[in-house]
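pasting for ref
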Amino acid sequence: MKIAIDAGHGPDTPGKRTPDESMREYHFNAVVADKICNELSAYDGLEWIRTDNSQRDVPLKERTDRANREQADVLISIHANAFGKGGWNEAEGIETFVYPHRSSTEDSFTLAQNVQQQLVQLTGRKNRGVKYGNFHMLRESRMTAILVECGFMTHRQEAELLKSDAYRQTCAIAIVTGMAATYGLRHQPDTKERAQLPTLQRALSVYVNEQEVGTGYLIDGLSYVPVRVIADLIGAKIQYDGQNVRILKGN
């Protein structure tokens, strides 16, 4: 099975960034694409290609031409969303798109449903559902194709998540898990131990005295919170020696 991984847009695409210009969309898309490829390496019988290039903005036609020429079975286009005319707003959540007019639409919709379900479950973000969209990457590709919007760059909280390596890893795991559920993918024998690692269930908003201070994660029924943020709030210091974390109480 061959998978085309598309990190949407490019490093210099105008306007594709947070309102405060602290993150360009491609920087999110490309890292998630990298992490997806890494996750796919744990499964048997897969190969993949990348349609984007970190050195230039690859035209959309060039991207779909390559996916079609290489006869990919599936195309996943990764994006971060935006709303409005450049400022912060309250639009939030995750949505996944398929093209409405194609013989493979039913297959794409099934894949989109599974990926959407995993993304919402693991991130804890608002479920905006599976939708139809007349986007080039969906319309001009000849294979099962979905376009995933992993959160809004124009929503303050989601923008911070989109900049987080932990959130990017969560999105990659969710997308690959949705693919595995759709196609019955099997882990390679030598990755059995990796497959038994703890399961990230969802992201959590962490509040101290009713003030939101960061993002934590629910992993195998246990809540994990950012220790440095909590330590700062209680006047403690953090020491990390590469293996252990020590919290030192303040005077």
